[in-house]
Amino acid sequence: MGEKRILSIDCGTQSVRALIFDSKGNLIVKDRRKFQPYFSKKPGWAEQDPEVYWQNACLAMRTVKEKNPEEWEKIAAIVVTTLRATEVLLDRNGDAIRPSILWLDQRKAKCTEPLRFFDKVIFSIVSMKRTVEIIRKQSPANWIRENEPQLWDKTYKYMLISGFFNYKLTGNFVDSIASQIGFLPFDYKNKRWEKSKNSWKWYVFGVERDKLYDLVEAGSIIGGITKKAAEETGLREGLPVIAGGSDKGCETLGNGCDNPSSASLSFGTTATIQITSPAYFEPLKFMPSYPAVIPGNYNPEVEIFRGYWMISWFKEEFAEKEVKEAEKRHISAERLLNQRLNEIPPGSQGLVLQPYWGPHVKTPEARGSIIGFGDVHTKMHIYRAIIEGINYALIDGLEKIEKKSKGRVQKIMVAGGGSQSDAICQITADMFNRPVYRINTHEVSGLGAAIIGFVGLGAYKDYKEAIKNMVHYKDIFKPNTENSRIYEKLYRNVYKKIYPGLKKIYKDMSKITNYPEI
After folding, report:
1. How big, in percent rounded to 5, are the helix, strand and coil portions of the chain?
2. CA distance readout (Å), 313 to 20, 40, 44, 386, 425
3. Closest CA to 495 of 377, 384, 381, 369
4. What's this model's pTM, rounded to 2 decimal places?
C-alpha cells in the first residue's frame, strides 16, 4: 500500500477540507474551502443549505486534483468525516428539501402532547423527566413536524451530513454507525436503531423508522463513486467509499487514543474530551457514550458547547486592535493573541471564567460568568481566562469520565484550532497536570479518517497497527509543578463552586428575561 493513498473529506461547521494521506500518516496534498457557518432567519436559529457543504467539497477535491494529479491517481478509497448532530431532509430523488438545522441552533418545538404516563413515571423516578422534555423540544424533527408538516411528509430519508455525503458519492442511503450522533432514535450501547417499537426514543425524537437509513460498521465499503459524482468531484467512477466516523471520533483516533489511559481534547467550535473504552458507560447521566470507530469500543465524551467559538466572540467584541495589527503582519489574529498569553500569569490574577456560553441539556438555565475582576485586569486577562475556563470545564469532564471508568487518564492528546498554539498546549499541560501530546499534523480528524481507510482496505491488520505506523507525535508539553498547584487550588476552591453558587441566580435571570428559555 506504499503507493496507495486515502482521500479524506473533513466537513466542519465553517469549512470543508480535501486531504490526501499516505499509509505512513503523511499529509500529501490539502485544500480547504471556507464558507459562512450558517444563516439565521430568527435570533437563535442556525441553518445551512446542505449543498454549500457538498459544492465546496467538490471544489476542494477538484483543486487537489489540479494541484497534484500524480497523487490523485494513487487514491485507493475515500472516507468522509463531518460535523455532528446536523440533519438533512431528502426526498425520493435524494434532493435536500430544506436547509439543515445545525447543531448550535437554539429553537425549540412546543411538544404540547404530554409524555406517555408510564414513561413520565419512570423518568420522574430517575430524576430525568426535565432532561427528556428538553431533548424532545430540541429535536429538529419535532420542530419541523409542528411547523412544516408538508415538508416532513415529503421527507423520504432523514440523514446526518455524513450520510448526505455518502449518498452524493455513491447513491446509497447508508451511513456509518460511528457517525450516529444527533437527535435520532439510536441505541448507542448496541449500535443500532432502537429495536423496540414502544421505546420512548421514537416519539421523543419524532422520527419514523421508514425515514431512517441503513447502518454499517466504520471501515466497511458503502459503495462506489457514481458517474454523476465522478463528474462533480473529479474522482474516478467506481472508486470505493469507506464508512468513516464523526469528526470528534476521528480526531480521537487520529490522536492515537485507542484505550482508556489517554484522552483526546478537541479545541474546536465545540470543545470536547473523549476517551476510547471497551466498556459502555455514561459520563453524564442519560448522555450516551458514542460508538467508536474501533470495533467493540465506545467514545465516552463530555462537551463544552461553543467552546473555542468564544475565541471568535472575544475577537469580535474586544480585539479590533489586534485584528488590524495581525492583518498588517499577515498572520492570524489568534496567533497574535496567543503570542501574548504568556504576558498574563497562571490563574489570570484571580479572574475565573465559567464557559457556559450556551444552554446544555443538563444545565439549561446556565449562563457564562466571569468573576474576580480588579483594576489590574486587561482584555488579555479575559483572553487567558477564556482558555483557562474552557480547560476547567474539560477537567471537570475528565473527572466524570474517570469516576465512571474507574481508571486514570495518564496523558492528554490535543487537536483542533487551539492546539496549534504552544502557549495553549502548555497551559493545558499545567492545568491537567499531565503531559500533553501534539501530533505532526493539524488535520487530526482527516488523519483519523485516513486510518479508517487504510484499515478498511487491509493495509493494516487492525487499528493498533495502523496507529503505530500513522500517528507521529512531534511535541510533548510537560506540566510545570508550581503552575499546576495554582490551577488545582483555583479549580477546587473557586471554579467548582461557581455553578452551584449561581444556579438559583441563573434561574431567576431566565424567568425575568425569558432567556434562555427553559
Report:
1. 45, 20, 35
2. 32, 17, 15, 11, 21
3. 369
4. 0.95
